[in-house]
Amino acid sequence: MKKILLIFGTRPEAIKMAPLVKEFKNNNKFFQTKVCVTAQHREMLDQVLSFFDINPDYDLNLMKPNQTLYSVTSSIIESLKFVLEEFNPDYVFVHGDTTTTMAASIASFYSGSKVCHIEAGLRTYNKLSPFPEEINRQVTSRISDFHFAPTQKSKNNLLKENIKEESILITGNTVIDALLQSIKKVEKRPSKRVSDLKSVIGNKEVILVTGHRRENHGDGFERICLALKKIAEDDSSRLIIYPVHLNPKVQEPVNRILSHSKNIILIKPLAYQDFIWLMNRSKIIITDSGGVQEEAPSLGKPVLVMRDTTERPEAVEVGTVLLVGTDEELIVSKALDLLNNNENFEKMSKLHNPYGDGKASKKIVNFIKNIKE
């Protein structure tokens, strides 16, 4: 029986790893599966664990006020030593580009476990954008034994870096697995938060906004907020709903610039199930999130990405997302074009999602099942 350890620490990782946790546990004749969370993000992580009924076997609970990249990286590596020695997994699964991902891959390499990277091969080749995620991905790729790439382009990036083709499998993205499984559950059993949002929204047009990236802190967020204010002023009958990230560097400019606009609703971060309901209810989404770029096209929602680069170029090439950076006028013009020009909206909303069919987790588990020991 193969021993599997899945390690993650943030809400986006938990969402994307949840269907894989379920798939491994559904194959318990072949695998002994355990979950370790670092709790790099505590509150937002716990919401996802609860929704997907995941009870971690190990909870490192490492989140501290004002934690730095230095402290969180060293804490993760040091804390995982006990977990890796106690369970001694054959395969450790990490996801994407977080500090947990990079630090866990290093710790797993030290322990002698095989490292498996979910959502492998995404690149901007600009080490400062996104920061520190681009380097986290590249470091993880150098360490990993198996690479589960969401797209052909991601696989090509890995091949260019001299990673052996037999160690790479194109799977699609597990976030689509999570979304398609969850949206049905949410519609059947809406939470109180969803019921409250329904009464606030009524039949109004909704623009959903999310933003938190480090590279946008400072002047970038000032410009983003000014753009949102202009979009709100264009039509007072539409609503902008913005679940505001808890980081004080996001909270300060958002509250200062946007809190007095009557048709901008600033709310606390939403639980995953409430967020996907709101995504589905929105007309367009303005975001700097990576996961939303993958999820929204499956719901037919055009996305404006407030970043200058993206490690998800497939969506840009297909046309399901548009890069607008933090350019105030560009954000405003592209948003209003989609909101006020139905032909352009319809064209963008009906494009094919390049990130998979909802079967990524099954492909990954079958691949590991068939590895000869």
Question: What would the keywords be for this entry?
Answer:
7-stranded parallel beta sheet; globular; 16 helices; alpha/beta; 373 residues; 6-stranded parallel beta sheet
Structural category = alpha/beta
From the alpha carbons, calculate the radius of gyration and give it in angstroms. Answer: 20 Å
Let me know the average pLDDT: 94
Main sheet specs: 7 strands, parallel
Percent of residues in beta strands? 15-25%
Percentage of residues assigned to helices: 40-55%
Main-sheet strand order equals 3-2-1-4-5-6-7
- Compressed to H and E, one letter per element, the order equals EHEHEHEHEHEHEHHEHEHEHEHEHEHHH
Net shape: globular
User: How would you name the oligomeric state of the polypeptide chains in this document?
Assistant: single chain
- Measured between the Cα atoms of the first and last residue, the distance is 10 Å
* Helix segment tally: 16
List unreliable stretches of 5+ residues.
none
- Could you tell me the number of beta strands? 13
